[in-house]
Amino acid sequence: MIPKNHPRYESLMTRELIVDGVEKGITSIHGLIAQGRGEAFDYLLGEKTTESALNAEKAAAAALLLAKKPVISVNGNVAALVPEDIIKLSGLVDAPLEVNLFHRTEERVNNILRHLRSLGAKNLCTKSDAQIPALSHERGKVDSDGIFSADVVLVPLEDGDRCKALVDMGKTVIAIDLNPLSRTAQCASITIVDNITRAVPNISGFAEELKNSKKNALLKLVDEFDNRKNLSDAVNEVLAHLASYKY
Predict the structure, then answer these.
(1) FRET pair for 222, CA 20 to 30 Å: which of 21, 167, 179, 206?
(2) CA-to-CA distance for 50 and 38, rounded, in angstroms?
């Protein structure tokens, strides 16, 4: 048991969720490494949502609301860390959830689907009958009615190869990545440099705020969003946090 007054309570509980995900067959053991890497970058941000992240989260909500066919990709870490939040967002923007894994096995795909269904998910893409071009074998398997034909894809915690491949297919790709220098962050159309545990609820909040907005207002939010500037701002926010740190 981790006492709630522990100074690293939230961080330690997040780690426990990932470990629990591994034990349930939801999360790959490699997800432990990814979580540790992300946590290190979150330290550099001050473990808070920055202004640039909020701007990106608002643009992401607008892009999802404008989409003709949005899809949300779910991997093992997402299913372990924010399952209820991702299900809520799916409902708000009418975007089905599709399990898409780097270390893919059908057993783990089915474990994640069962996990999501147990928490109330109903809008799910479950086929693996299409292949993302330029991605070989299991890594590129997707649903022909899901990610393959989507116009906007939210890919939390995605790897750079798949992010680039989706962009090359002409899709708007929204990534959540704590490392603004990663290939994923650099390739995505909208990069949210924030912890997924904060980012997904924030996108949902903006989706609720914007859902009755006129189409032109949503288009303005997306069109005026500059991802290169967003990433530059994220790096500057890291530098500002480090400069303010009391050594």
Answers:
(1) 179
(2) 16
Distance between terminal CA atoms of the chain? 32
Residue 225, strand partner residues: none
- What is the mean pLDDT of the segment spanning 70-89? 95
CA 151-82-6 angle, to 5 degrees, is 150
Cα gap 52→179, rounded to integer Å: 13
DSSP-based three-state secondary structure for 157: coil
Domain boundaries, the chain: 51-244
CATH 3.40.50.12640 fits 51-244, yes or no: yes
Whole-number Å distance between alpha carbons of 234 and 237: 5
**Tens digits of residue pLDDT in 128-184:** 999 999 887 777 899 999 999 999 999 997 788 899 999 999 999 999 999 999 999
CA distance linking residue 61 with residue 130, whole number of Å = 27
Q: Which residues contact 173 (CB under 8 A, 6 or more apart)?
A: 152, 153, 155, 163, 166, 167, 187, 188, 189, 190
Cα–Cα distances (Å) from 245 to 29, 37, 44, 229, 240, in that order, read 33, 21, 10, 24, 9
Q: Calculate the dihedral angle through the C-alpha atoms of 157, 182, 44, 199, rounding to the nearest 10 degrees.
A: -30
Q: Name every residue whose Cβ is closer than 8 Å to that of residue 87 and which is 6 or more positions away in sequence.
A: 97, 116, 119, 120, 121
